Amino acid sequence: MAASLATNPSVRSAIGLLEAWLESQLAYRGWPGLSIGILHDQELIWARGFGHASLERSERATPDTLYRIASITKLFTSTAILQLRDAGKLRLSDPLTQHLPWFKIGEAYPDAPRITIEHLLTHTAGLPRELGFPYWTTSDFPSAEDARRRLPEQRTALPTETAWKYSNLGLALAGEVVAAVAGQPFEQHVSERILKPLGMDRTLVKTPPKDAPGLATGYTRRLPTGVRSETPFTDGRWITPAANMTTSVTDLARFAMLQFRDGSAGGAQVLRGSTLREMHRVHWLEPDWVALAGAWASGSCARAAGPWSATAGVCAAIARSCSSARRTASASS
Q1: Radius of gyration, CA atoms only, the chain
Q2: Which end of the chain has fewer CB atoms surrounding its CB within 10 Å, N or C?
Q3: How far apart are alpha carbons 271 and 79 in whole angstroms?
């Protein structure tokens, strides 16, 4: 059996340098804390917490600290869609209304192609970024009933298939497709078909209680006075499939490991290797070749005349690793 990469002297030296740099950044930038891990193929070779998960509770951050992961949730929603596609229960080319007959939105461009499931996953549906509520300001997130009432009052932002436009609304609708096709709530399907087989026992789809053991406290940006205040505790409700899950570095690493595996679906191989490769390919390129939309597995990745940027760090890590023979990625929260 090959020795663990973690025992390699060069790797150990590089990790030591990273630890020293992170300690300096916490002090310089006033970060409350963070958790980070590095994996190589199917091994988490290093993971550690820095600073505090909660300043008020004087609770230290660890690799098992739970963090709200926002748009990394999109990776799981997209994975669920492709599982259903592989099972023959839907096609990516299906019109959205085939599975969500209640879906209706104002058509600013009535001659544009119908919105399909693939459009949702690649952010090319021309939908607005958000459902028509100011929930990122008020922290009051909509219910399913709110969504169905408000959608007809909104209008498409762009013609379908003309440009990449990031949309939490689109991925929330993809979650509705998962529930409709699977015949069970989105949260239940993701938990049973993705989290449990992968051994992600500390990952939650629904919002945990604010006082859940090990849950990190969120803080605002540092003000000129040097103070950071605690952010409001929220529940994403209807936009859960776009931005609501909670997990730890050690659990998230298990999902990242899936991206490096091959073979037929079954057990912890929740997607067959050919589907993973399909998801990792570029699926949208802007006409000027400046921006592109990448992996369905990543929900969205965008490139703008420079390095990879993404909705979440793990998205960039997966994108980088897929273009490299060194199957190494970072998983951080």
Answers
A1: 20
A2: N
A3: 8
